[in-house]
Amino acid sequence: MSVPRVFHTTTLLGNGKVLVAGGDNRHGTTYATAELYDPATRIFTLIGNNMTTKRSAHTATRLANGKVLIAGGGNGGELSTAEIFDPATEKFTPTGNMHVGRFYFTATLLSNGRVLVAGGICDNQGCTGTGTSSAELYNAVTGTFARTGSMSAQRSSHRATWLTNGAVLVTGGATSTGVTATAELFHPLTGSFERTGSMRSQRELHTATRLTNGAVLVAGGINGSITLSSAELFEPTSGSFVPTGNMETVRSEHAATLLGNGNVLITGGINTNTLHSLATAELFH
């Protein structure tokens, strides 16, 4: 890449390229720059047009129309601004602002084309310094955010996963009372959250990957100060979590990618027990 980045976003575009946007260098510099990775040439190309705002720990969500919604993040404070990247013009343009400035939150594309924004560390309205329970919906047609029902708990560094039944599973995260094992479901038809079964372990900075059979693989993360290797499966039909095989390595802030053959590729992350970053990878079958 053109610069070293952490807390940036990567988004697969409809043309097969990958948009890499924002982030920081962990030495006080936050980026507005973005670049495109071309799998055909294996080359990163810096985009001539920067984002409208420098951002780190933001979200990037590919919309049904192929454009990318980039929202929130941090830059000396929590951001409520959002912008749209158009792959056709390779330009960023502002869109409506969120009602709450946030980072370490989630943004999930729903089956109706809207984007659910939930939780995060925020700077106003319902924030305690650890997170917010508030949520809002982005409407790509009007370019605006509207408030929706709140989660049952204030969460940051949690995960949100779209399920095949249209609901969104929200798992774990940091709350005002510490890392939680609780989970809940967002129902788009009612705009409300409902508690579901709790995970077997308290987790934040974990991964949650929907498998081809509709179950969700939850892996790794941090339980307080301890990095985890444990994993579990959420079963949508029963609303419960069941244990599955452990990872070979303890990991948090790693990545998990569903492959075409149904396996899940787990890569990188941090072992906070030793403060070592990881280059290893493993497969969940």
Could you walk me through the main structural features you see in this protein, from its secondary elements to its overall organization?
- With 285 residues, the protein is mainly beta.
- The protein folds into three domains: 1-96, no CATH class; 98-198, no CATH class; 199-285, no CATH class.
- Helix content is 0%, strand content 41%.
- It has no helices and 31 strands.
- It has strands at residues 9-12, 18-21, 34-38, 43-46, 59-62, 68-71, 82-86, 91-95, 102-103, 106-109, 115-118, 121-122, 135-139, 144-148, 159-162, 168-171, 174-175, 178-179, 183-187, 192-196, 207-210, 216-219, 222-223, 226-227, 231-235, 240-244, 255-258, 264-267, 270-271, 276-277, 281-284.
- A hairpin with a 4-residue loop joins strand 29 and strand 30.
